Amino acid sequence: MADTLHTPATLRARSEGAAATLPGLLMGAERLAATVLLGEHGRKRAGPGDAFWQFRAAQPGDARRSIDWRQSARGDGHFVRETEWQAAQSLMLWVDDAASMAFASKGRPSKLRRAQTLALALAVLAVKGGERTGLAALPEPPRSGKAQLIRIADALMEGGDVPDYGAPRPQVMPFGARAVFLSDFLGPVEPLVEALTAAADRGVQGVLVQILDPEEEAFPYDGRTLFESMSGAVRFETLKAGQLRDDYLERLAARRAALRDLCARTGWRYQLHHTDRSAEAALLSLYTALERRR
Q: Cys bridge to 200: 23, 80, 171, 266, which one at CB 3.0-4.6 A?
């Protein structure tokens, strides 16, 4: 049976299904973004990109030719001359597409769909504000324009084999960019620590959005219950599920505390969102948090 999951016909069907969902995802994200009052958003470029913006201290990864030697001679360090275009804000997004994100209790969207919609709505806001936006799953640097929104939406909808839990991809983000990571953050925390530490070293600040289904918070299980991971790789059956509730809730609270501590140490913000809550409220809260990161 496992072999039939990877036949050309099956893969094509899954690809066609994702493509059919793409317009709806993009339209939904644009409608959601329209609920946020844009105002003045981002530094819009005012010319071809040669207008002086500021000097900043040189950092690892800067090209030698970018150093302003005249300004550097006035002090003890090396300085880079930034133009307005180079200093324009970039927004980087990571959406966890692991199997655990597919969970959805009855009548509610999956964690993955809510994460996709919020991420794409943020991208819409960034592009409309004259900013560049990028997706951690894409090898290309962040870009602006409608075409980039389509590329991001297409990448968000790509299917494929995924693990039970996801981790941020180790992509180098632009200096001084802002970022948003959306996940349930229920898997191993070490890759996340590594990703946020590397981001902080490059002056990247942002928001961790933990997305959970209400059932994952309430643990409404009792008696005989079969627990199974979304990929089916892990199964556990118990006759007394209710006795696991306290331990489960304690571990969930500990994970949330660990995420808050990690954000505090790296200059990020932590937000919790439940899929039974308003997507509009979550987007507005995210937008506000990112604006404070300027």
A: 266
Residue 87: count of CB within 10 angstroms of its CB: 17
Chain segment 93-147, per-residue pLDDT in tens: 999 999 999 999 889 999 999 999 999 999 998 888 888 899 987 888 888 888 9
Domain that holds residue 67: 52-85
Residue 12 lies in a domain: no
Parallel, antiparallel or unpaired: strands 52-57 and 79-83 = antiparallel
Same domain, 121 and 260: yes
Residues 6 or more apart in contact with residue 183 via CB below 8 angstroms: 94, 95, 96, 98, 101, 115, 166, 208, 209, 210, 211
User: 208 and 70: one domain?
Assistant: no
Of 276, 264, 219, the C-alpha closest to 242 is: 219
Q: CA–CA separation, 270 vs 92, rounded Å?
A: 16
